[in-house]
Amino acid sequence: MLYYIFRWLDEFGISGSHLWGYISFRAILAMILALSISAWFGEKFIKYLKKKQITEVQRDASVDPFGVQKIGVPSMGGIIIIVALLVPVLLLGRLRNIYLILMIITTVWLGFLGGMDDFIKIFRHNKEGLKGKYKIIGQFTIGLIVGLVLWMSPDVKANLNTEVGEQQSKEMVVQHNEKAEKTLKTTIPFIKNHNLDYSEIMAFCGEHKTAAGWILFVIMTIFVVTAVSNGANLNDGMDGMAAGNSAIIGVALGILAYVSSHIEYAAYLNIMYIPGSEELVVFFMAFIGALVGFLWYNAYPAQVFMGDTGSLTIGGIIAVGAIIIHKELLLPILCGIFFVESLSVMLQVYYFKLGKRKGVKRRIFKRTPIHDNFRTQDSQLDPECKYLITKPHTAVHESKITIRFWIISIILAALTIITLKIR
Predict the structure, then answer these.
(1) How far is CA 236 from CA 54, 239, 240, 370, in A?
(2) Please, are residues 88 and 37 in contact by the beta-carbon 8 Å criterion?
(3) In Å, how far are 128, 162, 197, 206 from 182, measured between CA atoms?
(4) Which of 114, 210, 231, 378 has a beta carbon 3.0–4.6 Å from 312's, enabling a disulfide?
(5) Which helix (H) or strand (E) is 28 found in, with range?
(6) Is the peptide bond prior to 301 cis by the omega test (within 30 degrees of 0)?
(7) What's residue 45's pLDDT?
(8) How confident is the model at residue 174 (pLDDT cuts 50, 70, 90)?
(9) Alpha-carbon gap, residue 291 to 304, rounded angstroms
């Protein structure tokens, strides 16, 4: 909104209005504004939640061996993140940009889906929340919408045609042609010619391989959105855990979006140039600011929980952002924490059911998702159950686990970025 106003004023030579044409200016301003809104609105919203007693279903206090009570802590704090994110984006973003529109729709859609889950938990006093099948339907639908829009919209293009120039300092100089077009290619990490073409995977369909490739792309989009949003949801189990990890992932995606939107950087890194993706930089900077501001209240000991309103939303944002810039295959590295959290739950359930068929009560980890394994001491274990992994035998403090997970996320984010050069 403000972008268009100041660009209009620039036509009249109004001093300073030209700054709004710089993506760096709008991105930094978006982060500052989001952080400020998150901190200011967060305080007032938490007071409102406490006044209305909008708290999560009572948690088992025995899980925390350090005796920190988390009963009565307000939930649905994800609303703070969503408000702090959308206000700067609507004010500072180019709202005609198809990528920004998709990110806004994703935020609102999954925020509503997570909000329904929290509403049932809090107001209906149903610990299970929204039924799993309805969550999957909601995630499936937004994934389908994103996939179809990226397929059919004429504004969605990338530049893959490159011209190789003379060698300089033993490096090939890559230049992008000016023409951008539809593409079914996506980046593969650690591979020299590091693009995977979905249509080539469907080459067995003959002359219909392009259409089949787009169908595969839509299916992939649905899978990625569902997997990452569920992974973020599982990661939201400790104070500051999901918010901190997601902010770090947001930094990496912001960098990837920026180099993808800059034709010279894209040529230097030999990656796809995606016109229009610079608006994702504004979005992700606001995303980072909103999460950092939320951490002011969510850091240990938490004054508010984000709930599914926040966790499903931030997971969907990360997934859709990566898909737009053709970096979805980098997510297993970038979102390695989310991946391991989900994998630990799946392995635990499978191993337990397998043992149950044999009449044996057994588990791999002491608790899942995996972060809970580290804060569970041996005295809390079921004496009738056999555990494959019991280390650490004593509980690790929640804040230390959270910070260590942040450090791992930073390493994974750095590794994701340097994959653009390691191939």
Answers:
(1) 18, 8, 8, 12
(2) yes
(3) 43, 15, 12, 19
(4) 114
(5) helix 23-51
(6) yes
(7) 95
(8) low
(9) 13
For the chain, give the number of residues. Answer: 423
Question: Quick one: tokens of 66?
Answer: 């350090």
pLDDT, tens only, 315-349: 999 999 999 999 999 999 999 999 999 999 999 99
- Residue of higher predicted confidence among 259 and 267: 259
Question: How far does CA 243 lie from the centroid of its chain?
Answer: 10
Residue 195 β-bridge partners: 187
Contacts of 303 (CB under 8 A, 6+ apart): 46, 73, 74, 297
* Percent of the residues in the chain that have a pLDDT greater than 70, as a whole number: 91
Return the structure tokens found at 297.
């209240």
Structure tokens at 83: 């408000």
Residue owning tokens 């997570």: 114
> In angstroms, rounded to a whole number, what is the distance separating the alpha carbons of residues 392 and 378?
8
- List CB contacts of 305: < 8 A, sequence separation 6 or more: 56, 73, 74, 75, 76, 77, 236, 298
- Helix 336-357 to helix 398-418 angle (10° resolution) is 120
Rounded Cα distance, 160 and 178, in Å: 10
* DSSP 8-state symbol, 159: B
Residue 155 in this model has a pLDDT that exceeds 80: yes
Is 62's pLDDT higher than 50? no
Q: Tell me how far apart the alpha carbons of residues 199 and 201 are, in angstroms, rounded to a whole number.
A: 5
CB 288 within 8 A of CB 254: yes
Indicate the DSSP class of residue 153. Answer: -
Tokens of 341: 């959290």
- Cβ atoms of 402 and 238 within 8 Å: the answer is yes
Position 173 pLDDT exceeds 70: no
Arithmetic mean of pLDDT, 104-130: 93
Q: Are 223 and 143 in contact (CB under 8 A)?
A: yes
CA distances from 309 to 160, 206, 315 (A): 37, 44, 11
**Residue at token pair 């490159």:** 162
Residue 70 amino acid letter: K
CA atoms lying within 13 Å on the CB side of residue 74: 22
Q: What is the mean pLDDT of residues 172-200?
A: 76
pLDDT on residue 68 = 63
Query: Residue 239 corresponds to which tokens in the numbers above?
Result: 């104070």
Return the H-helix or E-strand segment holding 354. Answer: helix 336-357
Nearest to 317 by CA among 285, 362, 284, 342: 284
- Tokens describing residue 4: 């268009």
Hey, which of 13-22, 184-193, 268-277, 399-408 has the most confident mean pLDDT?
399-408
Note the pTM of the prediction, 2 decimals.
0.93
